[in-house]
Specification:
It is built from 15 helices and 38 strands. By secondary structure, it is an alpha+beta fold. Strands 1, 2, 6, 7, 8, 12, 13, 27 and 29 form a nine-stranded mixed beta sheet that branches. Strands 32, 33, 34, 35, 36, 37 and 38 form a seven-stranded antiparallel beta sheet that branches. It has a five-stranded mixed beta sheet with strand order 3-28-26-9-11, with no helix packed on it. A hairpin with a 2-residue loop joins β37 and β38. α1 (3-25) crosses α2 and α3 runs antiparallel to α6 (140-151). Mean pLDDT is 88; it is low at 1-48.
Length: 871
């Protein structure tokens, strides 16, 4: 088929079926199909010279080594001098090659389907890695241009052309491991995109085809780059349930089968002949109103003096109280990338003093205010998302969030920076606030908003006006950094109730993509100036692919995501948490209070205004509560476990190693192995064991004394510590932790021995993981970072040399059963550290396939103590 014949055939199919859709949508007495002037239709649809754009792409591929790579690797014969698109749409036979085993297509170009187009898979899949320089890998603009060519060839069916709308989607191409169906690599969509704040400019990792939070400047490796979300405009079809789509995660209520979703059919691009427009201009509007909601809700706490003229010192509708992207250039920026757009946060300090016109803002901390570890607590949420273990004869379950306490204002507000009387400085409080005093307010760049396109003046001979003149916006969230960008909740499947046990006492693996709550109902559409989101639109956070299999791929398993050989981050909701206590990525608000003073979930909507102020305050509390959101928030439970209520001390769920949480100068690693003192990812230092006469104590940081705001402002946080951790590594740590808890004579939170194996689970253990060390090869032994030299005998060989049956990579875990009956004491050498006595210690050499452990009495060490090792 000649090029003109091929494009003409596609064009005519598009035109005829588009006209049929107009008839279906606008059906009324007397409606009929329009007369078709084929010459005019051809002229209209061929104004966008797809061949010219394709020719530019082929030249780029030739110049950068991709044509040669594909021809040699896949036994192809691509001739870049031939830019006839029709020649690339014929079925091909490809040689087998790494990175192409999850490709579902049979053509170099599959009209309308990037996932079925080998050229697109080669350029867009992070699994395809030719041995060429990273500078020769495609940019987002190159990939976007190829999308335009492929989608521009899409022919529609009559069924597809009913219930059509124009809508903005966040989207990306993923290998089969991370698609909803796990059958093949595919385009993955959502009506919500997630961008993340940072203090450095965004950095595209061309090798992995994603944006990384690692700054481009090697000197700033400890900092964090902003990461954007990519959005595009699509012609989409309204579908019910999974008719035409496959969902990633299902709603808890089981009602997805009756919900309305939007299925993207065809991308709209610049110069698109489907619409009589040459331009495609995206608009965004984002709002940060955390401080505004705080000072309005607690106006009696807000220090806002009035001058002689009756004017308040602060205007709470202006920055830093209310910041919007229309009036501030420091919140959000949009960057066009061909026919799509990147929405990103403007880089800046993660935490900043809240100032207006150079004046610092304060609020009053009162004695009667509820305090939670040096933060003012504005709402009490009870035991939401906590394991219920009152009756362990029955199955343990997680307390459900009833959505009856909306997060209408920041739930936790930092209260550690006390105004120093009439002086310009501050007193940094070491412990919990006692009131009455003025505390400094802080701001961050977390916000939410919408992304849309102004189509009001567009025209089309193919689409009815009510379709072409209306654009449904996407929801955009700009939120906290992802400390584990290479891991998401689904990567950790198997550790949260899959076997009726859970590693997580609090929080868990519930993914945001399964949440069915409306986007911010107060958000304004920047084009129409009306409410941006439909009151009934609760499927915005769904993540899905189109249900289209061109070719069935057999013999490959892509469900075990931790086995993937590539490492790539994402900006869709499935990498976010659906746990709102108050939340990591976002939370919910509710402005509809019933007559009896209660709230209902049906009236709730997604909003960032209830997140911690600033975000680092809640980050500290989340980390201390076993991470809460394990694929984004680090688990620092073992750093602070002695600070928690003795009735339920959140145990570690996803162990971080000693070096990752920081080595104290008095720890065995520093005192005896002579490692340098260090701080961890959060600027704090982990626990360690110390011997005092014949007793062993855990020395740990008091949670009330730790201050992530101070650490962030002083540059003490190190984002490089965790960013390269993979799902395989975290799963290995968790599996070994689970094996230890199953084998050890575990105690519960009351320090009572548990004999019933059904009750043994990581989430309910009373044991404290004091030291965790990664061992690359047990055949070479461990270093013993957490073992005091005088714990048993005069050396630590007994702990670091592999016992029988222990080989290969693994971990050296040291657990403490602390003495609940004795008080926690202050460390005389540090105002922020505490010590607690140990009843027993358990030293474990563990791999995923085996364990050897021994017990030591921590309250009566003897020189002649004999060790008994158990398997």
């Amino acid at each position: 088929m000649k090029r003109r014949d091929f494009i003409t055939k596609t064009a005519l199919t598009t035109f005829l079926l588009s006209e049929l859709s107009s008839f279906n949508i606008l059906a009324s007495p007397g409606s009929s199909l329009k007369d078709v002037d084929f010459d005019k239709v051809n002229a209209a649809l061929l104004t966008e010279d797809a061949s010219a754009k394709f020719k530019v792409l082929l030249k780029w591929m030739l110049d950068n080594g991709w044509i040669d790579y594909l021809n040699k690797t896949l036994s192809l014969n691509i001739n870049p001098a031939n830019a006839d698109i029709a020649a690339y749409t014929k079925n091909q036979t490809f040689a087998k090659a790494k990175g192409f085993d999850d490709f579902m297509g049979e053509k170099l170009i599959e009209p309308g389907y990037p996932a079925g187009s080998l050229l697109y898979h080669a350029l867009a899949s992070p699994r395809v890695r030719p041995a060429i320089g990273t500078g020769n890998y495609p940019s987002v603009e190159i990939i976007d241009s190829l999308e335009d060519v492929i989608y521009g060839l899409r022919a529609f069916t009559a069924d597809e052309m009913t219930d059509m709308v124009l809508a903005v989607f966040a989207y990306e191409y993923r290998p089969a491991y991370k698609t909803p169906h796990h059958l093949h690599a595919d385009m993955v969509f959502s009506r919500t995109g997630i961008s993340r704040i940072g203090d450095c400019e965004m950095n595209y990792d061309a090798l992995n085809r994603c944006y990384t939070n690692k700054p481009a400047d090697p000197a700033k490796v400890k900092n964090i780059a902003v990461t954007p979300a990519r959005f595009g405009l699509f012609l989409a079809k309204k579908v019910t349930g999974e008719a035409g789509i496959t969902l990633m995660g299902k709603a808890k209520d089981g009602e997805d089968g009756t919900r309305t979703f939007l299925q993207p059919i065809r991308k709209i691009f610049k110069g698109d002949a489907l619409l009589d427009t040459k331009e495609l201009s995206f608009s965004e509007y984002h709002v940060n109103e955390k401080l505004n909601s705080l000072v309005k809700t607690f106006s009696d706490h807000f220090n806002n003096p009035i001058d002689a003229a009756g004017k308040h010192l602060f205007d709470i509708n202006k920055p830093p109280f209310r910041v919007d992207s229309r009036n501030s250039a420091t919140l959000v920026k949009s960057i066009g990338t061909g026919s799509s757009v990147l929405i990103k946060s403007v880089p800046g300090a993660l935490v900043r003093w809240a100032k207006q016109n150079g004046k610092q803002a304060y609020y009053t901390v009162k004695k009667q205010d509820s305090a939670y570890f040096a933060a003012m607590n504005t709402a009490y949420v009870g035991n939401e998302e906590v394991l219920v273990f009152d009756d362990l004869d029955k199955q343990v379950y997680r307390e459900v969030n009833p959505y009856d306490v909306p997060r209408n204002t920041p739930m936790f507000v930092n209260a550690k920076f006390k105004k120093d009387g009439a002086m310009p400085g501050f007193i940094h409080l070491e412990r919990n606030p006692r009131g009455n005093y003025l505390a400094a307010l802080f701001e961050d760049s977390i916000c939410d908003g919408c992304v849309t396109v102004d189509t009001q003046n567009w025209s089309s001979r193919l689409l009815p006006d009510h379709v072409s003149h209306n654009c449904l916006p996407a929801f955009s969230i700009i939120t906290a950094p992802d400390f584990f960008p290479l891991v998401d909740n689904y990567d950790l499947a198997g550790f949260d109730f899959e076997d009726n046990t859970s590693n997580f006492f609090e929080g868990g693996l519930y993914s945001f993509c399964a949440e069915r709550t409306r986007p911010n109902q107060t958000m304004e559409n920047p084009i129409t100036k009306k409410q941006a989101f439909d009151t009934h639109g609760d499927t915005f956070t769904a993540v899905f692919s189109e249900s289209k299999n061109i070719k069935v791929i057999s013999g490959n398993k892509y469900t075990e995501t931790s086995k993937r050989e590539y490492q790539s981050s994402s900006f869709l909701p499935d990498v976010c948490s659906g746990v709102f206590a108050p939340g990591w990525d976002i939370t919910y608000a509710n402005d509809t209070r019933k007559a009896d003073g209660t709230y209902e979930k049906v009236d709730s909507y997604l909003s960032t205004r209830g997140l911690g102020s600033p975000f680092a305050e809640d980050m500290k509390l989340c980390a201390a509560m076993n991470g809460m959101w394990p694929a984004a928030s680090p688990d620092a439970a073992r750093t602070y476990q002695g600070s928690m209520d003795t009735d339920y001390r959140n145990p570690t769920a996803v162990p971080l190693m000693d070096k990752e949480i920081g080595l104290h100068k008095d720890s065995p690693a520093c005192k005896e192995l002579h490692l340098f003192e260090s701080t961890g990812w959060d600027g704090e230092q982990g626990p360690f064991l110390e011997r005092v006469y014949n007793n062993v104590f855990v020395n740990f940081t008091d949670l009330a004394c730790a201050d992530y705001i101070q650490n962030a402002m002083n540059g003490q946080m190190d984002m490089s510590v965790l960013r390269n951790l993979t799902s395989a590594e975290l799963r290995s740590r968790m599996a070994c932790l689970k094996l230890c808890i199953n084998k050890l004579p575990q105690t519960n939170f009351d320090q009572e021995i548990i004999d019933d194996n059904k009750q043994k689970m990581v989430g309910l253990t009373g044991l404290w993981l004091v030291s965790a060390e990664k061992v690359d090869d047990w055949g070479k032994g461990a270093k013993g970072l957490g073992i005091p030299a005088d714990l048993v005998g005069d050396n630590i060989n007994w702990a670091i040399r592999a016992r029988k049956g222990i080989s290969g990579p693994g971990y050296l875990y040291v657990f403490a059963n602390t003495d609940k009956a004795k008080p926690i004491m202050a460390d005389n050498l540090s105002t922020k550290r505490r010590i607690q006595g140990c009843l027993k210690l358990y030293v474990c050499q563990v791999t995923e396939s085996g364990i050897a452990w021994t017990m030591i009495y921590g309250d009566r060490l003897t020189p002649a103590q004999k060790l008994v090792w158990n398997a």
